[in-house]
């Protein structure tokens, strides 16, 4: 079995997130190069971290905490989708 060129790997687009009434409202899109997806989630996670820090310091509102929560939900979905690609038998190193 041959290992796929890492730069050719893309998201599967099978990972849902933001569930409402037991239905996902959003899903990771397929075909995004993994490098680009990981770069984007790094940015999202950075912003989520900053919002969480602000939420910890601001007692009169929870808007920062909720924004951070939703950003983290998006980050987790993309990371889960990337992991599915990397753990795929056709991409596993022999």
From TrEMBL:
It holds the Pfam family DUF3077. This is DUF3077 domain-containing protein. The lineage of its organism: Bacteria, Pseudomonadati, Pseudomonadota, Gammaproteobacteria, Pseudomonadales.
